[in-house]
TrEMBL record, chain A:
Residues 307-386 form the B5 domain. Its main location: cytoplasm. It comes from Oryza barthii. Its EC number is 6.1.1.20. This is phenylalanine--tRNA ligase. SMART domains: B3_4, B5. It holds the Pfam family B5. PANTHER family: PHENYLALANINE--TRNA LIGASE BETA SUBUNIT (PTHR10947:SF0), PHENYLALANYL-TRNA SYNTHETASE BETA CHAIN AND LEUCINE-RICH REPEAT-CONTAINING PROTEIN 47 (PTHR10947). GO terms for biological process: phenylalanyl-tRNA aminoacylation. Coiled coil: none annotated.
TrEMBL record, chain B:
PANTHER family: PHENYLALANINE--TRNA LIGASE ALPHA SUBUNIT, PHENYLALANYL-TRNA SYNTHETASE. Coiled coil: none annotated. This is phenylalanine--tRNA ligase. Belongs to the class-II aminoacyl-tRNA synthetase family. Phe-tRNA synthetase alpha subunit type 2 subfamily. GO terms for molecular function: ATP binding; metal ion binding; phenylalanine-tRNA ligase activity; tRNA binding. It comes from Oryza barthii.
């Protein structure tokens, strides 16, 4: 979940009242956001620099209290102070939802963005808008920059899907063009630099830039790089990497040109709408946005942003039914209004119907069910009367799990201690340390392990029990442990290509190997699992010769039809050495599913 | 010792008294120590009553005991001088420290002399001597009384010291018996067979001592036991367990079928374990896949959809399931194919996997508890009702619900419970109603809702047992002593 930092005092000014922290937390809880942390600018800087409280003064004398607020991942309109405050003002009923408008300007005086065909090779979409007569101050300016960062991190998927560029329109001259050119042909002075760079050299230069280097991969290997020019061939930006220095926004900027380049048009529109609906608050004509015409290479023209409301029509029962409350349409309409949704009753003969207008800030509303949630939130989740589902059903267990529990109890009764270990392990533990190098071809292998601890899914419980023994090596002997758990192996017969297998494994460790002890346990299990379809002959131990055990002190366990259901043996000295175990051990592993 | 006890008891029984245990001991020809042990044992049971007699007596020092055995220093000196005399050095070497002490008294007694002109040669002046000192010491040792002058002299020479000695006067005690019974410590087979048990009298038992350690087996007392109790709650509430023994899952069943868009951050390799082998799933239900694709791309069933280019490759990528909801999805899809529709309550408790950094509260694999109910007309009120039933069985009766976001549930609610110990609301789970975009493409009838909730098994277990490091609960580093010493789980006993 994304977290937004807002200055508490400025935020309370925007909310039109102050709250105690407790009151504010109650409001957050009801609305579905969370006050994650209360800190100060100084504390944040200290933390970043890893300083202790008394390690002297840090730069910046700002003692302003900062609220860190966690918001839902699909509410892009809550990613800045402006949006959060607006949503809460509307929620608490102190303000109505604003109407976001496109300013009326003649089509021929509208700014234009021409899209060149080559962009389709790398980043095909661009959408734009203009904010006129903006008044920035330092706090607003910082919020404007922060929102871009937050959007880039979240919906833009680290700029892969969408990248935002904002420019001082008064330094530029339209129309603009969105092109894709070989890097050698692009030259400009990037933001925060004084010299001009050729695009390929610039990419090289940014490889050592902590912030920007993680975006380079998006275009690095493309023969053409996306670039936006104005009519004087001034570079606005090299998306999704960096803007040009020429058109940089300052506190004095009055007219802002916003462009969003993208690989996903739906998201580009949401991002642009979010930027303009949030910051048109500071325009001379509040909540009014100047459109830009995007002219595609096929000649088609589209005007952005699209601030029209999404219309939905729902029946009353569709909205309140799933909540389990009864309200009339006026009540529902006023609850919807608290959630920024304009609504009105529609004329209808039968059941009451409600027409809802979803503003451009609420891109999360996809379905009537989303309205249900908003009505429920506005009504208060904790005010919904509880009820009981009426359906009568009978409980039951999975036979394999029930059977496993019976075996667990049986082995515990035999004096063994149950342990619970991880399914994930390292390649080395699961194969090499057990002298079982052949098994690699049967195992599920993780493609993106974070550490060597989690490289494969275990194909046996053996390494898990040996590891557990190692961690308790000072425990008094004899040590008798067991686990019932799943291993996973490749399985062509399954849709996903792998299947679990339930295993029972036990390990005995003492001054002597305990080979007979383990055989005694197996005898007991064989004795209790017998059933008309589970038969064992007189001799169910058949000698084997596997490298993880001592020769001649190992065998497999077979049913009377010859099917192998398990194996046991005195663990080989080499294996014990690799696991760091000084005393002899006997291990047994049994396929539980074969005994069901 | 038994004889001593028998003699003493017989003596007292026949009317005798023992005014002085020391002389009684000599009459029995045993040491006083032996008699004293018997007296102490009898007086502990008040069979005899004792009166202490204390007296201070002179006793010989170790040095004096040496003189009793080997003669006084002066006698030893005289005996050591040959007829022709001997030099001081020779005598000193022969007698050691005794030489210097002996010289003084021997000279005073005129038992020795020196050759004229040669003070070094010691000569013997008498043929026989009477060793008074040795005799005095012997008399003292045998208890005779010596004159004060002699005592003073011996005291000055540090040959005697004063010692306190205790002995006893004895008579019958209130519990007197002529013959003491032997106290039993245990009941044996022999007692029962012979009938001796009738006369058994038991020695007092030391209940401060611990019992014998017993050799037993153990089930994992934390997760497994808590799992069992939670399972019981589900079964009591009429829930059927889902088959969750499939850790490898396709992105399709784990994400796409749940209307979780392909660009969702949870599908990032930072959060999910993708697989090198088996890298991709081989089959997906074709009709259903088309419907899922459509609802993501363009919507339908009353939804706008996400409006992006849905890719089958992405859906086919295999992973280790990130939630058991992947299984719920398969179960609901299966249920949708069964006609006519029948309501279901399903639960599961099994492992899920997240590609997270491991720390005190996070593991790369943990257990997820999940419950869901599928029926016509289920409501958010029903969900709240079920959650209150479920969590109150877990001892969490004070619940609060917070709006939340989850791609496949709408409405979504985080579940908070008031923790009496921590004195605050803690998040205990997530819940919601599955989205129509998830249920309708499966073929479930319109109007059928699914209410569901999930939580981890580890978190409530940690709260229950006050454990703050998740690795003390699960994994190879769990301490065997913890498994052995954990108390019974009392969930479900309220």
């Amino acid at each position: 979940m994304p977290t937004v930092s807002v200055g508490r005092d400025r935020f309370f000014v925007a909310l039109g009242r102050t709250y105690t922290q407790e009151e504010f937390e109650v409001l957050c809880f009801e609305f579905g956001i969370e006050l994650d942390d209360v800190t100060t600018e100084k504390a944040i800087i200290r933390k970043e620099k890893h300083l202790e409280d008394d390690d002297g003064e840090v730069d910046g004398d700002d003692d302003e209290v900062i609220y860190k607020i966690e918001v839902a991942a699909n509410r892009y309109d809550l990613l800045c102070l402006e949006g959060l405050a607006r949503a809460l003002r509307i929620f608490t009923g102190t303000e109505a939802t604003p109407m976001y408008k496109i300013s009326c300007i003649p089509r021929d005086s509208m700014l234009q963005m021409y899209v060149k065909p080559q962009t389709s090779q790398i980043r095909p979409y661009v959408v734009c808008a203009v904010l006129r007569g903006v008044t920035f101050d330092e706090a607003r300016y910082n919020s404007f920059i922060d929102l871009q960062d937050k959007l880039h991190q979240n919906i833009c998927r680290k700029r892969t899907l969408v990248a935002i560029g904002t420019h001082d329109l008064d330094t530029l001259k339209g129309p603009f063009s969105y092109e894709a050119l070989p890097p050698q042909e692009i030259n400009f002075v990037p933001l925060k630099q004084e010299e001009s760079f050729r695009a390929d050299k610039l990419m090289e230069f940014y490889k050592s830039d902590m912030k920007l280097k993680k975006f380079l991969h998006i275009i690095e290997n493309s023969p053409v790089y996306p670039v936006i020019y104005d009519s004087n061939r001034t570079v606005l930006s090299l998306p999704p990497i960096i803007n040009g220095a020429h058109s940089a926004i300052t506190l004095k900027t009055r007219n802002v040109f916003i462009e969003c380049t993208a690989t996903d048009l739906t998201k580009a529109k949401i991002v642009l709408n979010t930027m303009v609906t949030m910051f048109s608050e500071y325009c001379k004509n509040k909540f009014e946005v100047e459109p830009v015409e995007v002219v595609s290479h096929d000649g088609s023209k589209t005007i952005y942003p699209d601030l029209s409301c999404y219309k939905m029509e729902v029946s009353l029962s569709e909205v309140v039914g799933p909540i389990g409350i009864s309200l009339d349409e006026t009540q529902v309409i006023s609850l919807l209004n608290k959630m920024q949704l304009q609504a009105e009753s529609c004329p209808s003969k039968g059941e009451p119907r409600i027409s809802v207008s979803v503003p451009p800030t609420r891109s999360d509303i996809l379905h009537a069910r989303d309205l249900v949630e908003d009505v429920a939130i506005a009504y208060g989740y904790n005010n919904v009367p509880k009820s009981k589902p009426k359906c009568m059903t009978i409980g039951g267990r999975q036979p394999l799990n029930r059977f496993s529990d019976k075996l667990r109890a049986e082995v515990a009764r035999a004096g063994y201690m149950e342990v619970l270990t991880f399914t994930l392990c390292s390649r080395e533990e699961n194969f090499d340390m057990l002298n079982r190098t052949q098994d690699v071809n049967k195992a599920v292998i993780i493609a993106n392990p974070r550490t060597s601890e989690f490289e494969v899914v275990r194909t046996s419980l053996m390494s898990c029990l040996l590891k557990t023994l190692k961690h308790n090596i000072d425990h008094p002997r004899p040590i008798k442990i067991f686990e019932v758990g799943d291993v996973v192996t490749l399985d062509e017969s399954r849709d996903v290509g792998a299947s679990n297998n339930r295993r029972l494994a036990a390990l005995y460790c003492n001054k002597q190997s305990g080979f007979e002890e383990i055989m005694g346990l197996v005898d007991r299990i064989v004795n209790v699992v017998r059933a008309p379809h589970i038969k064992f002959g007189q001799n169910y131990y058949v000698p084997t010769n596997e490298p993880e055990f001592f020769p001649k002190r190992q065998c497999k366990i077979v049913m009377s039809d010859g099917k192998q259901i398990g194996y046991l043996g005195i663990v080989h000295a080499e294996v014990l050495r690799k696991f760091g175990i000084p005393d002899p051990c006997t291990f047994v592993e049994i396929d539980v599913e074969a005994l069901l | 010792m038994a004889d001593v006890e028998a003699c003493l008891l017989a003596h007292l029984n026949s009317g005798g008294e023992v005014p002085d245990s020391r002389s009684y001991a000599s009459s029995l020809r045993v040491t006083h120590d032996e008699l004293e042990a018997v007296i102490k044992s009898l007086s502990a049971f008040r069979i005899v009553d004792t009166t202490d007699i204390t007296k201070e007596t002179w006793v010989l020092t170790d040095e004096a005991k040496g003189y009793v055995a080997g003669g006084s220093p002066e006698a030893q000196l005289v005996a050591a001088i040959p007829p022709e005399g001997a030099s001081k050095d020779v005598l000193r070497e022969k007698l050691g420290s005794v030489f210097d002490i002996g010289m003084k008294t021997a000279a005073k007694n005129k038992w020795i002399g020196f050759e004229k002109g040669n003070k070094d040669l010691v000569l013997r002046k008498v043929d026989t001597i009477k060793d008074d000192l040795q005799e005095q010491l012997k008399s003292l040792e045998s208890g005779e009384v010596l004159s004060d002058k002699v005592i003073d002299d011996l005291k000055r020479r540090k040959l005697i010291t004063k010692e306190k000695s205790i002995w006893y006067a004895l008579k019958k005690g209130p519990q007197f018996v002529a013959k003491r019974k032997k106290l039993a410590t245990d009941v044996t087979q022999e007692h029962l067979r012979s009938g001796d048990w009738k006369d058994l009298e038991f020695k007092d038992y030391n209940f401060g001592a611990q019992g014998q350690p017993i050799a037993i087996g153990y089930v994992q007392p934390l997760l497994e036991v808590v799992r069992e109790e939670i399972q019981n709650i589900f079964l009591q509430m009429g829930f059927t367990e889902m088959p969750t023994n499939n850790y490898v899952e396709s992105s399709f069943w784990n994400f796409d079928a749940l209307f979780q868009p392909q660009q969702h951050p949870a599908r990032d390799s930072h959060d999910t374990f993708f697989l090198e082998a088996p890298a991709a799933t081989k089959q997906l239900p074709e009709d259903y896949l088309e419907k899922v694709k459509e609802v993501h791309q363009r919507g339908g069933y009353g939804s706008k959809g996400y409006g992006y280019d849905w890719k089958q490759d992405e859906a086919e990528k295999n992973l280790l399931r990130t939630h058991t909801t992947a299984v719920s999805t398969r179960m609901l899809y299966k249920l949708a194919q069964e006609k006519p529709f029948a309501p279901k309550r399903y639960y599961s408790i099994d492992r899920v996997f997240r590609n997270e950094a491991v720390d005190r509260t996070h593991l790369a694999e943990f257990h997820q508890i999940e419950g869901l109910i599928c029926d016509y007309g289920l409501t958010l009120g029903d969900l709240i009702g079920v959650l209150e039933d479920f969590f109150s069985s877990l001892g969490m009766s004070k619940l609060r619900f917070k709006p939340a976001y989850n791609p496949y549930t709408e409405p979504s609610m985080e579940i908070f419970s008031y923790h009496e110990g921590l004195k605050k609301w803690v998040e205990v789970g997530n819940s919601g109603m599955f989205r129509p975009e998830m249920l309708l493409p499966m073929g479930l009838p319109e109007g059928v809702n699914v209410i569901a909730w999930g939580l981890s098994l580890e978190r409530p277990t940690m709260i229950l047992y006050g454990i703050d490091n998740i690795r003390d609960l699960f994994g190879p580093k769990v301490d065997f002593n913890l498994i052995k010493s954990n108390p019974l789980c009392r969930l479900g006993l309220q």
